[in-house]
Design goal:
Layout (H helix, E strand, L loop, with lengths): L12 H12 L7 E4 L9 H16 L3 E6 L9 H14 L8 E2 L4 H13 L3 E4 L3 H8 L16 H13 L8 E4 L14 E5 L13 E3 L1 H12 L3 E5 L6 H11 L6 E5 L3 E2 L6 H9 L14 H7 L3 H11 L7 E2 L1 H15 L2 E2 L1 E2 L2 E6 L7 E7 L9 E7 L1 E5 L19 E4 L4 E9 L5 E9 L16 E2 L1 E3 L4 E8 L24 E8 L11 E4 L3 E5 L9 E6 L4 H5 L3
Parallel strand pairs: 1-2, 2-3, 8-9, 10-11, 12-25, 14-20, 18-21, 23-27
Antiparallel strand pairs: 4-5, 5-6, 6-7, 13-24, 14-17, 15-16, 17-22, 18-19, 19-20, 23-24, 25-26, 26-27
Helix pairs in contact: 2-11, 7-8, 11-12
């Protein structure tokens, strides 16, 4: 994707810091950032904000951004997640070159760094149980006290740590701790764990290792090894920054990246926790990570959300240090704005009601011209078949219309989009009184939607010609949860799922929709935006609703 197609946000505090560093000549004028996901799940819309920041800042300053997998927890990570992460980032429009970095590539170097800390008397092996450690650590109101392991000699600690690596001790029996300050007001600086024993096959390293570094130890080292200049994290890591700096100083790294924190994206009517998203998938509340109701990037892609909409959404959020919840309607507005510019228009009837034009010649089908996108003259026009028998939307007819209803009713005239004026002359019902067909007349002088005598109609409705209509299925997706902040009040978030988050309907489509490609998003006129799903079969398309034309949810909620 070319740079001009990627949104550039306005200046924020992080970009101001980077600009000041460049002006001062720090890091030799280089900007190197990184995006370091753990490959234990699929990326979601919250990650998109970080991706746009990490890759965006590097791009804006002629630098580079490393995609680095934080694969330090072998029990939860998999190649499947690595592949999905890479695919999502490329789909968003960002380039990380031919190299994916891995924390596991540095395991030997990290181990050597840990040995160096021990030699300098800044790390020690601790064999306290978790319960015993809690007593020594203290809490926010009670200072900690030095544990017994702190008094071991350098030689003893080196021996124990090397034997930990050799696999002589059971899982959980020992850890390597940083010797910092057991009375620190920052509880994360009270001799935090640097390494733990964990026997599990690593998806890249196999069984080469039985000790694994903790994220707080690995993260800063990875940044230093790779020459990262600006390391951006969300606000929950702010309290961990002193440890980030301490490790680099304790080992005396010549290159010292700096960590900066910003507020993470929290979106209403969804959950962002990987644990909760995994639960939704594993317990089959959704159909997988790419279920179009999920906030995952692959789910949004399958739903038909264009990547430009997500980039524009992220740019509009800005980068701050203030935690807040963003209304899902903001994202939906960005999606509508992008699709309004780019999506081709078609007609589809989701709840068909038959219309017969009794004065139209039997057996005749003519072609009328439809505009593909009024926002884009270059999109051109298409031919739409028109004939004696049509289908309209059932909601576009009422036997006894209320005031302000301008669509079809007995004796009333409406305009068919791109077609003619028609008037309802007769209503046919079944034994239960349900309307099954409308007998209408058409005015052949009104082709194209205007009358030579100057008469006006207030209603224009869409339609599909019967003989060439393409049968299909639509999936009407809505918000996954029925409350703005699922689980925020302590309620089980699974009890707050929206029971109407997915409805399906059989529909009739204008035949031109047979040429739409899987993944392409179009507008069904007056209905919303829909994307062709991979479940489609020849002659039987399946469309997922991307977003409605208007914020109908806010209207229903009385907002």
């Amino acid at each position: 994707m070319s740079e001009e197609n990627i949104s550039t946000p306005s200046l924020d505090f992080i970009r101001e810091i980077v600009a000041a560093d460049l002006a001062a000549g720090r890091y030799d004028g280089k900007v190197v950032t990184r995006f370091p996901p753990e490959p234990n799940g699929y990326l979601h819309i919250g990650h998109a904000k970080a991706i746009c920041l990490d890759f965006g800042v590097a791009r804006e300053n002629g630098g580079c951004c490393h995609l680095r997998m934080d694969d330090t927890n072998p029990t939860k990570e998999d190649t499947e997640y690595v592949d999905s992460i890479a695919e999502d980032i490329r789909w968003l429009g960002y380039d990380f070159g031919d190299t994916i970095y891995y924390a596991s590539d540095y395991f030997e170097k990290m181990y050597e760094c840990a040995l160096e800390l021990i030699r300098r008397g800044k790390a020690y092996v601790c064999d306290l149980s978790p319960e015993e450690w809690e007593k020594y650590r203290g809490n926010s109101a009670v200072p900690g006290t030095n544990p017994p392991g702190r008094s071991r000699s350098v030689e003893e600690n080196l021996d124990l740590f090397q034997r930990m690596r050799a696999g002589e001790f059971p899982d959980g029996s020992m850890v390597l701790r940083a010797a910092i300050d057991m009375q620190s007001p920052n509880i994360h600086m009270r001799d935090p764990v640097l390494y733990r024993i964990r026997r599990a096959e690593h998806f890249r390293q196999g069984n080469e290792w039985c000790i694994y570094p903790m994220y707080d130890f690995a993260h800063c080292l990875e940044d230093a090894f790779e020459g990262v200049t600006h390391s951006f994290c969300t606000l929950e890591f702010e309290i961990h920054r002193p440890l980030y700096d301490w490790v680099l100083e304790a080992i005396d790294f010549p290159h010292r990246p700096h960590q900066y924190e910003f507020s993470r994206l929290q979106l209403s009517y969804t959950v962002m926790s990987k644990r909760k998203l995994l639960q939704l998938v594993k317990e089959h509340y959704v159909e997988g990570w790419d279920d179009p109701r999920m906030p995952t990037l692959c789910g949004l892609r399958r739903r038909g959300v264009p990547p430009a909409a997500i980039r524009n959404f992220s740019a509009g959020l800005g980068v701050t240090k203030i935690n807040s919840v963003t209304d899902l309607a903001v994202l939906e507005r960005c999606i509508r704005e992008e699709l309004n510019r780019t999506a081709s228009r078609f007609m589809a009837v989701l709840d068909p009601l038959k219309v017969t034009l009794k004065n139209y010649p039997e057996g005749q089908v003519e072609m009328v011209q439809g505009i593909n996108n009024p926002e884009d003259p270059a999109a051109g026009t298409r031919e739409i078949p028109f004939g004696r028998e049509l289908y309209i939307e059932r909601s576009d007819f009422m036997m006894e219309p209320p005031k302000g209803y301008f669509r079809l009713a007995p004796g009333r005239e409406v305009r068919l989009r791109y077609g003619y004026f028609i008037r309802c002359e007769e209503v046919i019902t079944d034994a239960e009184g349900r309307v099954v067909e409308l007998i209408c007349t058409y005015d052949p002088e009104t082709r194209g939607g205007s009358a030579p005598d100057g008469r006006k109609v207030k209603g224009t409705i869409h339609w599909v010609e019967k003989s060439r209509a393409l049968p299909g299925t639509v999936r009407l997706y809505d918000r996954l949860f029925s409350v703005e902040q699922p689980g925020a009040d302590g309620t089980d978030f699974l009890t707050q799922l929206n029971p109407d988050s997915l409805k399906t309907a059989e529909c009739l489509l204008e035949p031109a929709l047979a040429s739409v490609a899987v993944g392409e998003t179009v507008q069904f006129e007056r209905q919303g935006y829909f994307a062709l799903d991979r479940d489609s079969r020849p002659g039987r398309p399946v469309f997922n609703r991307t977003v409605t034309l208007k914020d109908s949810w806010a209207k229903m909620q009385g907002k």
